[in-house]
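S.,

As promised, the HAX run. Input:
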Amino acid sequence: MEKLKTLFKSKADQLSAEIKDILKEHGTKKIGEVQLAQVYQGMRGITGMVYETSLLDAQEGIRFRGFSIPELQEKLPKAKGGQEPLPEALFWLMMTGEIPTEEDTHALSADWAERAKNIPEHVFKAIDALPINTHPMTLLVVGSMALQTESIFAKKYAEGVNKKDYWAITYEDSMNLIARLPAIASYVYRHKYKNSETIAPDYSLDWAGNFAHQLGFDQGSFKELMRLYLTIHADHEGGNVSAHTTHLVGSALSDAYLSFSAGMNGLAGPLHGLANQEVIKWIIEMQKTLGTQTPTGEQIAGYVQKTLSEGKVVPGYGHAVLRKTDPRFSAQQEFAKKHMANDPMVNTVWTIYETVPPILQSLGKIKNPWPNVDAHSGALLLHYGMKEYDYYTVLFGVSRALGVLASLCWSRALGFAIERPKSVTTENVKAWIKGEDTIWE
Ligand code: HAX
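Predicted complex:
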């Protein structure tokens, strides 16, 4: 994809020069103050990294290169006859800051289809080697780690490469990995749940459309769901666990395969991406306990109290940064209204949405009582018959590759340094409080 590569390089050179000037003139300016509580509580709100591909506003939600999700739905090129944006177009946007033409988008689909061919057999054998009850996220990580044998960055670095060329080999690795992920992820699904009956790719389709096909879901609107799903889950600025982990590991010049796999291990945590499986698991358990598929708001309220009294979180609600309903939740709700307005599980998700926020708000300690992206996605997948909810985070992971790998390309092109923030011990903190240690000053 020479056009994308050349455009990316010209944008990166331009930004690199601007950053040099900014740092020369303003490098010593302070951008905030850090409170002790922030240091203990997950570094919340501390600005500590630059991440070009998207930016999160607490009230408005995510913007990708300045575009909100409804704007992406309107402006990004679509599949033939489709209404949802193509994720490859979002990747182009994140790489260049420009909305691609239809022609460029379709050329990128074709480029990824070509790169997806001839995945080495050992990748699938590595997945096969694990017990069948292995979690699908572990299988995804094992598959993408096994593919690291193909890293051009690792090979060229071992041979000796000029640091000016890191970006180009990171770009090639990222493009190859993204192209091949649907094949690996669909293999995980078919191997684990469908007796290893795999489905041959249809490379005439776009990246998300073919992924739906290889999973075994060929209904027209499932492909549309995948296009939307893989677009909206792609990026959420740099501080979330999967993006930050990929960025951190990448800062050691670990290649795209190592960095992405590390990020996926973070996505597999229940407070992050795994929340999408936890939501459906929680709803199914609630339905069983209450003996109904369509609990009332009152019944749900009682179940939420039970969950809280057991010291558990209500999955799909809350966020470290957002303070309103996640626009990714709203985009999925709109999709459901269009395609499955009477689905009982979808309706239950909506009743939960009416019921949960006031309860969480009343506790007084939860900063954001509103739903996040994970509160809705499972119900959409269930509607099409994808019942294996422990697989859901893998779909999130395939999408997240777009954002974190576009950002890795940017980090290499801008020559970002190895990450190494300062830590202190509580002994230091106690001494600092007494005025005996000035470690932070
Ligand atoms: N249910 C119950 N309690 C919750 C809660 C929820 N949904 N959300 C927050 N809280 C609690 C916290 O556990 C914390 O309790 P303690 O003081 O007793 O430790 C308190 O409220 C304050 O937390 P906060 O400042 O509002 O939230 P954090 O920034 O610490 O955490 C989380 C943000 C998303 C991890 C949190 O809201 C949560 O656990 N939500 C449920 C899990 C979930 O949906 N995760 C997915 C988030 C989106 C994402 O990354 N997707 O991939």
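The domain at 107-273+389-413 is CATH 1.10.580.10 (Citrate Synthase; domain 1). Residues 240, 271-273, 275, 313-320, 365-368, 372-374 surround HAX (CB under 6 Å).

- D.
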